Amino acid sequence: MPQNAHSPLSLATWNVNSIRARIDRVVDWIERSDVDVLAMQETKCKDSQFPFERFEKIGYEVAHFGLNQWNGVAIASRVGLDDVERAFPGMPGFAKDPEAEQAQEARAISAVCGGVRVWSLYVPNGRELTDRHYPYKLEWLDRLRSYAQKQLADDAGVRLAMVGDWNVAPLDEDVWDMEFFEGKTHVSAPEREAFDAFEAAGYKEITRGFTPGPGVYTYWDYTQLRFPKKQGMRIDFQVVSPALAERAAGAEIDRDERKGNGASDHAPVIVRFE
User: Is it the case that residue 6 has pLDDT exceeding 80?
Assistant: First the structure.
């Protein structure tokens, strides 16, 4: 049953790094955590390959946007899943060949869940500072910010949550070693400015206030024993409109879900709204 706009809401985001490889862990986690809405990124499958029935069996509707074995985003909700949108207005595309059509990738999907417009976002990685993927990433973030700014201008009371893998570490403390990241993506000034522009537009990143660093991360590379060495990055966030930010009652990063065999390299990030 859909909730009204003022019901409590628990909203999680998780880069699952292949939903088919991790469906058992994801379903088990949803049942344990008892979240109302889960935004997923890097599902890595086409719509026809997504395991919808596993979510439906535990009472969740799912909207999925997947085109191939790359990218892919989804929203699972037990509080309504209405007015689904694939890609935000003006979302740029990308192709390896600069002369080819720059087709949109499966990086953004939204739905109204429990009175909140939720966006599940998989922001482009950027790859290298000299790669074409880097200006694509900056343009992608700028277009998203333009969309978000317009939503707020049209309705100051809009309940909008942009959650997911932002692929930006906004502060130095969001990476385990700034020297290691010297000259790399995720920490460059233009990327950080693109992230900060959302706050300048009136939005608020809600998780940091409840889970302050340093040493608090959401992603740990599989290589070099990064997880046991506590060498991670904080790149998964929930950026919300003012009307939603004032309802935030708590947040957590479920670091335990990064442990064990078959874990994603990201941890779920949960916010509770009153």
Answer: no
Cβ-based neighbours of 105, under 8 Å, separated by 6 or more: 67, 70, 71, 93, 94, 124
3-state secondary structure of 96: coil
Question: If you count them, how many residues does the chain have?
Answer: 274
Measured distance CA(261)–CA(73) in Å, rounded: 23
Give the model's pLDDT for residue 3. 46
Give Cα 250 distance to the centre of its chain. Answer: 18
Neighbouring residues of 164: CB distance < 8 A, sequence distance ≥ 6: 13, 15, 39, 41, 73, 119, 120, 121, 122, 123, 236, 237
Determine the Cα–Cα distance for residues 213 and 173; give it in Å rounded to an integer. Answer: 7
Q: Find, among 184, 182, 240, 176, the residue nearest to 208 by Cα.
A: 240
**Closest by alpha carbon to 145, among 98, 185, 200?**
200
Quick: pLDDT tens for 234-262: 999 999 999 999 999 999 999 999 999 99
User: Beta-carbon neighbour count of residue 212 at 10 Å?
Assistant: 10
What pLDDT, in 10s, does the model give residues 166-180?
999 999 999 999 999
Q: What is the Cα–Cα distance from 64 to 49, expressed in whole angstroms?
A: 10
Compute the distance between CA of residue 101 and CA of residue 220 in angstroms, rounded to an integer: 34
Distance CA(177)–CA(198), nearest Å, equals: 25
SS3 (DSSP) at 151: helix
Residues 6+ apart with CB under 8 A from 65: 47, 72, 73, 74, 86, 87, 106, 108, 109
